[in-house]
Amino acid sequence: MALFRRKKKQSDDSIINGVKLVTAVEPKNVVSEQFRTVRTNIDFSSVDKQIKTLLFTSSGMSEGKSTVSANTAVTWAQQGKKILFIDADLRRPSVQSSFDLVNGRGLSSVLSNNLDFHEVTQQTAIDNLEVITSGPIPPNPAELLNSNRMKRLLDSVEAEYDLVLLDVPPLLSVTDTQVLAARVDGVVLVVRQGVAQKTAITRAVELLQMVHANLLGYVLNDMVPRDGYGYGYGYGYGYGYGHE
Questions:
Q1: Which residues, other chains included, contact 227 with Cβ-Cβ below 8 Å and sequence gap of 6+?
Q2: Domains identified in the chain and CATH numbers
Q3: Rg (Cα) of the chain, in Å, rounded?
Q4: What is the C-alpha separation between 210 and 3, in angstroms, rounded?
Q5: What is the pLDDT of residues 7-59, one digit of tens each?
Q6: pTM for the predicted model, two decimal places
Q7: Spatial separation of the C-alpha atoms in residues 69 and 79, rounded to whole Å
Q8: Most CB atoms closer than 10 Å: which of 11, 54, 103, 189?
């Protein structure tokens, strides 16, 4: 899995509604290239089995999982693949802001009212990229995500899209993510340097292992190389690092 590394002062300040979608606004930016590296390494990880559903999460809050997942989704769409991005964070949704969409109806509407997912799917400004926002915040997120309706939804969208990405809550906050991690083809863990603690990351990996999730690797976010130069990438699960 690629490590997404950027300098603190890199000019990646192109913002759509407060969320950095550098891959959409500045596709030639060096940061955009790193997101394409993330995409490429996920593609390589699916040599033996095609990945159709992919979940992005983190151990805790404020690690950048929503920004990483949104930008990576854009890179697949730019490659010409038909992508569906689902905001499965039914507690603190953010995808509608990332893509400047309305959130009157969404995933919670499908699961609560048994709507057809086509009724709530929205086209973004990015060709080939469609979104299902979270919808109204429900009183029972974990129950909805663990329902048969959610399973049927995943089966339905898998048949219609090349790849389905889900943005979900942090692993250590609620049980929602464990429920979904067991149902998707792959999981990517976003780790932010200076925010994530080693013990928290280790526990997050343990929770994924408990439900036999397919952990593909990690994205190391907001890392400043010691030599202060450039960007790089590496491989592995690497959850035994950090300075906290």
A1: none
A2: 15-221 (3.40.50.300)
A3: 17
A4: 25
A5: 333 333 334 443 468 888 888 888 888 888 889 888 887 667 789 999 999 88
A6: 0.81
A7: 16
A8: 189
